[in-house]
């Protein structure tokens, strides 16, 4: 057995057994963050906090929610909303956070793209972040099933039908897997088996995966460090040494705690004013009126559209015939993963200092907004054409990216 | 020595994967299968005598809507029609073959139109416009006098299957 001296304080006692001082140093007091950053660098903390809000509000919802096709709708819309004290608060926090979390994810993601924070050693940060985006999407979708309203049912129907795969005349039917859709649903249509398994995914398996991925995402940041506004590379050891010697002004870094955290908490505070404003006064934007009708397998709602954060990829699926549509949709899901490998430039810098990439970035942003707007509009007339053009532009942008960025290395 | 240790590791890993992993995956797959009670879910019998021409009837079979449309004499005939008691009927699963929304029937145009992505089908269930890749699917059926049994494959259905239209 290891030798232990008698401790003179609780801190020392814990230190001997858990090395708390060392742990604190490694994860906070001597975790160095560059000075040259702006409020966009706080989005990670905003996301972590929003995830915590989702977990806490979810725990309270879980105590009254009943995952049964007969009682799910009432357990949400009656029991939680009118009987449970402050049940409405948890529901509105959960609903608003589920929507807002995607807004912040997109800001976080586009910040990373703009400043080139996905390459030259930061690939795993990018890939784990994109995995988080996909699992968050699955988490949002499975949660959307649970109130078992009309939109829950029909979104479940339409999205699981995607797994029917290609019609047999394409690729000799290789991906045509009869019975796959029924297997996913556990029934011919979304029913009890479907609701129970999506409930399990939403409250257990997917949150576990998300937590593991968040750990990986944070860990991937340690070695390449956080990027800065100029994509500047500098010696962290030297900068940290300067700071510890008291030359805080000359040093290019600040410790995570307490200096960076105080800035983070300020941004978080501003964000939370906005967040709780939505929770208390504008929660309706996250509550689709169609979903206040109970699920009915014999009546399709007039328009089936996903929540706003899925609209852009939905619009890439929609204007094409079925098989090319599925291929385009699959491509849209994968395209952002490939970003570090499609970008052939060695430069880590803001997009506006990167030649053609500047135009690429802003066209991509505008195109995503156009796709999002078109996804919400009914598929008629001119909207169909604009949607098709925007979808083609999106695919073309990613296909062209290696050539757009290749020339930067020469300059 | 490390070779022997590697061998033990590979042997243990391989054994675990083969004897534990594959059966476990199989068990997990089977646990997600539709239950026998759901698969055995009954047959639906529909009386056709009460149906009037060019008016869409929607029945429920295995949780899915079934379209039954009695054709009038001036509507074009099709090999996909179900003939019972001297009349012709269009019978299909009422889910758009694009992504499974329920199309609505417009009697004046004798067309099915899907609100989700704009697909259209004629009164015989054939896709005429938009993203649907195939005609509406004909469910297994058996004609029994003036009745039709859904879920049971009768001679007329088997013939359609042979012709590749069901």
Tell me what the structure shows:
The complex is a heterodimer of chains A (411) and B (166). Chain A has 411 residues and is mainly α. Chain A folds into two domains: 31-304, Cytochrome Bc1 Complex, Chain C (Up-down Bundle); 310-411, no CATH class. Chain A is built from 16 helices and two strands. In chain A, helix 6 packs antiparallel against helix 9 and helix 15 (356-376) runs antiparallel to helix 16 (381-406). The longest helix of chain A has 31 residues, at 192-222. Chain A is globular and about 70 Å long. The termini of chain A are far apart. Mean pLDDT of chain A is 92; it is low at 168-174. Chain B has two domains: 2-33; 44-162, Rieske Iron-sulfur Protein (3-layer Sandwich). In chain B, 25% of the residues lie in helices and 28% in strands. Chain B has three helices and eleven strands. Chain B has helices spanning 2-31, 36-39, 155-162, and strands at 44-47, 56-61, 64-70, 82-84, 87-93, 104-106, 111-113, 120-122, 127-129, 141-144, 147-150. The termini of chain B are far apart. The interface between A and B is medium-sized, with 33 and 26 residues.
Biggest interface, chains and residues, is:
A-B, 33 and 26 residues
What structural class do helix, strand and pairing data of chain A support? mainly alpha
Helix content of chain B: 25-40%
What's the total count of β strands of chain B? 11
Indicate the radius of gyration of chain A in whole angstroms: 24 Å
Keywords, separated by commas or semicolons:
heterodimer; A: mainly alpha; 2 domains; two-stranded antiparallel ribbon; 16 helices; 63% helix; B: 166 residues; alpha+beta; Rieske Iron-sulfur Protein; 4-stranded antiparallel β-sheet; 28% strand; elongated
